[in-house]
């Protein structure tokens, strides 16, 4: 379950005593009250304390809400039972039960009803339903209970839940067909898995690698009783291949299965699972941490395909109760929304799942190469290594920056139409008639922002410069390390999302030095680079926010990172690039980065729309179907963006990036004695500085 939408409250208690209600003291007396009780004398201190108590009483009489401890979903109290308890004392306006918390909040229609409930329930012992456990309730008044309105969660992409796929009679026959007691291997299976009983048909499922041994089929094939059901699934289009592997799991209350992704190379796309005997909540998790709880009703079919099958993990949390929507009892399907006004507990019962798979006979070529074991070895062999020399750095950038932008220029330009507000603000703040160079101008979206400026752009990509010309902007082709503009001739320069494409600290510093060379004394440069910190001050960047359901975005979430990361993709707080950068900025004489290189220096492939785990990496660009490259044949087959054919046929390009840690860009700028930093800030996942030429 996600914890979003949890209620919050701040119960306030008197400094010296707890609440006194209805003539019955609750809690302890303070020293002044004790003196008054013993001597019968009213001291000045006692009078002051007496007034405090009166104020507390008066304040409480205006309150309508209670917090009830030990009466939450987290310790086994259902909404039905708690509502039945609290409604005995008056009209209940709201009952809020945060997920996985041992407390709840109740708001009454009147303060009198709230007071009656407090008097009756504080210290009251009750027995939990479906359990012999006794608990003691503790109450207190709260001034305000606040909660966020929960937004219904969407199912993971390409996931389907089909209700009532079979009849109760078909369910009975399928359950009876599994002979648990007569199977000699059952005990071994239970010893291996510990958490559930399991049977395999067709091929034995190997839990060490979530695959099968394709050379060792089991005798007998699939049970005959399953054949009509599978033919129905084929006819309805839920699967494209007739399964030849079946795993039957039986879960008792409290049992589950760890989160996992079925191995890509082992099985074809669709994996279907039939829930028999009882409903269950299954948890799905994206590599970025986003979780979705999905209710699987009894006799329903779960269909995992595409992204939900290849990228998201799925599992069942071992517990005896599931948190579910209260208003949909008996007809639940889909996601569980963490709405504290509509959650309750449902006791689990014995559930049996029939999970069908089709064994794959060829390698997987899905669009999630960073989690695909078929493509992983090929990918590792093709991945470039971190450059050890100036020549290698230049070759890396030529292959994974310059060539890529030439190929994707048209598609890239179609995603670059909205100028960033703070860049626009900088350009509009410049004096009329200023000469401004946009170094790395891309499609020239900033060249026409301020018509009072004389702006000229330059970019390494001939195709992007051509797009600038089509828009009527002035631009030319050049390298950002050697701009053919006279020194000291510009009033301002901008470098937006360019310097992070240089693959060594020395080359990144050289790019900044080149900007400074172009400026007149007093001239300013604005620099933007991609930030390692895509979540800053508890706010996610736009890059992370757009990961779900984004359309026509640059970084469509078409690739993923495995939950079990390969060695070259594990989080690494000290990448080679940052290590070299630190030595450079410390003015160390040893400029050779190769001395302390890791044994495996291949660059990892980043998972789009997720947080960064390495400073130096390759970021995929999926060339969308229907986007015509310059020079492409007009007879070329095109598909609408997002369709399956487009995903399978569209090429994927990998661009090199070095993402900057906080302070890294400023440190590089301060190493130059010809500039000073006027301003530095964080803007939507980018580190930014404004420099002044001295």
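Q: What amino acid sequence fits the structure above?
A:
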């Amino acid at each position: 379950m996600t914890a979003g939408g949890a209620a919050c409250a701040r119960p306030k208690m008197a400094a010296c005593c707890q609440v006194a209600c209805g003539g019955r003291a609750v809690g302890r007396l303070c020293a002044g009250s004790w003196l008054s009780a013993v001597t019968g004398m009213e001291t000045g201190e006692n009078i002051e304390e007496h007034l405090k108590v009166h104020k507390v009483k008066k304040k409480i009489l205006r309150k309508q809400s209670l917090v009830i401890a030990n009466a939450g979903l987290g310790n086994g109290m259902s909404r039905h039972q708690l509502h039945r308890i609290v409604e005995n004392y008056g009209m209940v306006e709201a009952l809020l039960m945060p997920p996985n918390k041992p407390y709840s909040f109740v708001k009454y229609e009147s303060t009198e009803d709230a007071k009656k409930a407090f008097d009756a329930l504080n210290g009251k012992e009750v027995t939990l339903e479906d359990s012999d456990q006794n608990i003691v309730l503790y109450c207190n008044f709260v001034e305000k209970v606040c909660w966020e309105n929960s937004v219904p969660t969407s199912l993971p992409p390409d996931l389907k839940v089909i209700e009532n796929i079979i009849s109760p009679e078909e369910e009975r026959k399928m359950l009876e067909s599994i002979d648990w007691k007569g199977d000699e291997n059952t005990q071994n299976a239970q010893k291996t898995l510990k958490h559930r009983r399991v049977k395999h048909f067709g091929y034995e499922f190997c839990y060490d690698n979530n695959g099968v041994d394709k050379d060792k089929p089991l005798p007998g094939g699939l049970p005959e009783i399953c054949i009509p059901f599978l033919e129905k699934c084929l006819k309805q289009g839920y699967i494209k291949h007739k399964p030849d592997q079946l795993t039957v799991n039986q879960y008792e209350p409290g049992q589950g299965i760890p989160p996992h992704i079925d191995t890509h190379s082992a099985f074809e796309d669709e994996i279907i699972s039939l829930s028999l005997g009882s409903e269950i909540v299954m948890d799905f998790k994206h590599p970025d941490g986003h979780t979705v709880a999905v209710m699987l009703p009894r006799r329903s079919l779960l269909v995992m395909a595409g992204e939900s099958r290849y990228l998201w993990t799925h599992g069942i949390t071992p517990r005896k109760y599931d948190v579910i929507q209260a208003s949909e009892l008996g007809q639940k399907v889909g996601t569980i929304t963490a709405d504290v006004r509509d959650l309750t507990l449902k006791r689990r019962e014995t559930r049996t799942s029939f999970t069908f798979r089709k064994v794959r006979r060829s390698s997987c070529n899905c669009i999630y190469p960073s989690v695909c074991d078929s493509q992983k070895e090929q990918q590792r062999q093709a991945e470039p290594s971190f450059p050890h020399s100036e020549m290698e750095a230049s070759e890396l950038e030529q292959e994974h920056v310059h060539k890529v932008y030439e190929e994707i220029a048209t598609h890239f330009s179609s995603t670059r139409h909205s100028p960033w507000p703070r860049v626009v603000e900088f350009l509009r703040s410049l004096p009329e008639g200023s000469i401004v160079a946009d170094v790395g101008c891309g499609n020239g979206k900033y060249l026409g922002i301020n018509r009072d400026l004389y702006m000229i752009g330059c970019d390494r990509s001939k195709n992007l410069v051509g797009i600038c010309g089509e828009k009527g902007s002035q631009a030319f082709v050049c390298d950002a390390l050697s701009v053919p503009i006279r020194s000291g001739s510009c009033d301002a320069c901008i470098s937006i999302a360019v310097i992070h494409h240089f693959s060594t600290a020395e080359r990144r510093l050289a790019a900044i030095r080149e900007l400074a060379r172009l400026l007149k004394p007093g001239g300013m440069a604005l620099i933007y680079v991609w930030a390692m910190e895509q979540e800053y001050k508890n706010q996610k960047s736009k890059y992370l926010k757009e990961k779900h359901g984004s359309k026509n975005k640059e970084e469509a979430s078409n690739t993923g990172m495995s939950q079990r990361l390969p060695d070259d993709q594990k989080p690494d707080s000290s990448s080679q690039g940052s290590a070299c950068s630190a030595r450079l900025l410390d003015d160390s004489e040893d400029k050779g980065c190769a001395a302390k290189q890791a044994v495996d220096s291949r660059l990892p492939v980043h998972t789009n729309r997720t947080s960064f785990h390495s400073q130096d990496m390759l970021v995929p660009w999926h060339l969308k179907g229907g986007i015509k490259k310059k020079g492409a044949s007009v007879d070329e087959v095109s598909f609408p963006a997002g369709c399956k054919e487009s995903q399978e046929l569209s090429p994927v390009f990998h661009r090199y990036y070095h993402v900057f840690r906080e302070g890294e860009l400023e440190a590089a700028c301060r190493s130059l004695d010809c500039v000073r930093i006027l301003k530095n800030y964080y803007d939507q996942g980018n580190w930014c500085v404004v420099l002044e030429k001295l």
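Q: And what stands out in the fold?
A: Residues 682 and 688 are 6 Å apart (CA to CA).
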